[in-house]
Amino acid sequence: MKGLSFLLFQCLIPTCLALVSGCDRGPERALAGSAQEAPVSGETSGSQADVWWPQHGLDAREQRFSKLAQVNTDNVTQLGLAWSYQPPLPDDGFAGTPVVVDGVVYMTGTFATVFAVDAVTGEELWFYDPQVDPGHGFSSSWAARRNHGVAVDNGKVYVGTPDCRLIALSAQTGEPVWEVQSCDPGKEYAIAGAPRVANGKVYIGNGISDFGARGYVTAYEAATGEQVWRFYTVPGDPALPFENEILEMAATTWGLGWASGGGGCAWDAIVYDAEFNHIYIGTDSGLPWNPETRSPGGGDNLFLNSIIALDADTGEYKWHYQTVPADAWDLNAASQMILADLELDGKPRKVLLQAPKNGFFYVLDRVTGELLAAENYVPVEWASSIDLETGRPVENEGVRYYLEQDKSAHTSPTPLGAHNWHAMSFHPSHNLVYIPAQSFGATYNAGENAPLGGVSFHYYDDNLNAAEDGLSEAGEHNTRGRLIAWDVIKQEARWEFMHEFGMNGGVATTAGDLVFQGAADGKFRAHTATSGEELWSFDTGSAIQGGPVTYAAGGEQYILVPVGSVSMTRFMIPFYGDLPGPTQLLAFKLNGKASLPEFTPMLPAVPEPPVQTASAEQIARGASLYNAASCGLCHGSSGAGVRPGGSMPSLQYLSQETHAQFKQIVLGGDRKPQGMMSFEGILSEQDAEDIHAYVIERQWLLYNKQQK
């Protein structure tokens, strides 16, 4: 089998889950104050004041830089485990960043569950299960496995759910205070991003643009949940009144006069700027990815792939900058943004920094949106540069696949992005941004052979070794990740640390001149901020994707990291980055003496599969359809890569009973309430039979290996 294929148009992804419901457990804890009252930075030694991590990015600027320096380059080797906590959930990993306020760690897990643990001991204080319904569509089922965290403010904890609710909980007890329906999950909306709270309001976006949702961001009163304003990111049906004049303007950049397929969801990046009372949002791409289909007649397609500044009180449009006009590659701008003050060309500038999927690092003026700098931080093939006068990319010839004779083109980055949602950090003393990056290349295709319609992409080379559960030599070379220290002033890399695998975790930086990052190989590392030298590492036994944080309590500095691989990496990188260790929070401090709980990976016996009766041609066709229908996005590429223990079953462990129900599950929707969407009208009965033959073949491979 040659690489991976990803369906981008009219595709639903099958998923199955085993929801472990929770309830309030453990003692109640009185809170000393609110996130607003808690200090956001400061040095700690001896009996100095406690210091928390009260927001997703530490503070509203999302720099993820802490002034704590008790742990530093001289003593970081003395870090030891202080405590660990494993939530009572399916083993689906963490995608978020913990928030720490007044001695309590707040975090989300699978199905938007929220839990609170003691920041010093790791003792569970309460656990809340919103009882989400993942059966509305692909979006809710997909988002159910990758919640990016909470916001905490004034005694409340805010969380968004995959079935489109925004919920405020009591920070003390975990009991619901209010709840609103922020989007319609029946229309392929879902929420996975972390809410942001500022100036008495909660800001939340949604997704998923690739499946037809029309993007918007909503502001709610933090105290009551009452809606204050809503800003749509792409124009709706012109037969209806435009919501505002700016969307009427945006409609002129669409060939059909509107975004008929939706798009532009702000599913994660939302930043509050107190100096200018702005909210900045980053937007996703549109559907379909092929611009000729999405917008016949051309156009830039505003506000896809854009950074937009809005008035934080009213939602009024201020300015925008589009990173990829007429995007054809899903190189969206929904990644994290950082606010900073820099001196550029001898002048002080208030800037916004972003390293979006497209591989270029952008520096924008926060007042006007003027582009100040843009250089590629990884090798880029789709464009040679960004024109600073026009702000537009200088595209390379032959990269717009739909214009080529064979409707295909090789380019990079891919939809995985040169940088995805994994958190960056900024060290203001060194003017360095630390980027968790990777350099995947791909072949895009919009020809007649694009499976099931739309656009497909394949990784370069034979990245998968189809005969074994592993990557080829070329695949290992092409899918390595890196931690890049990017000099914002010089627009160049100061240093790089190469990872063994791609898609590694978020980053936090401290005044102790340390950079902390977890990786897909299970190592949690500390690097020197100036050179990247690895000073310390801890083998967690679990792949790491979430963002680490640091805080101080009782005169001791703690480093906290969420470990466990989330669903996206299990699909895109199925044969690594998914170590068998459990999903848990790990806290470290100087001279910590705790030990990791004993864990012995116990893979169950593979059930004997049904007798294979299909031909080699049917099996090969089933392999192509499996990838085209994106079955692997939940169940693992090549029918492998998702181990037992999570909410999405590995298809190499199917029982005889499930095999007998296969067609009814795939086409009949028998497990839709659990999140497995029906493919009726997308796959034919023969398609389902061929996919089943391929699944049986993959199960026989693992069964025979286990028997040996």
Q: How would you portray this structure in words?
A:
This protein has 10 helices and 40 strands. The longest helix has 23 residues, at 685-707. The chain is mainly beta and 708 residues long. Mean pLDDT is 87; it is low at 1-47 and 460-468. The strands form 11 sheets. A 5-stranded mixed β-sheet has the order 1-34-35-36-37, with no helix packed on it. The chain has a 4-stranded antiparallel β-sheet with strand order 2-40-39-38, with no helix packed on it. The relative contact order is 0.14. Helix 6 packs across helix 10 (685-707). It is globular.
Oligomeric state of this protein: single chain
Mean pLDDT: 87
The total count of strands amounts to: 40
- Compute the separation of the termini in Å: 24 Å
Structural class: mainly beta
TL;DR?
With 708 residues, this protein is mostly beta strands. The chain has a five-stranded mixed sheet, with no helix packed on it. Strand 7 (151-153) and strand 8 form a beta hairpin.
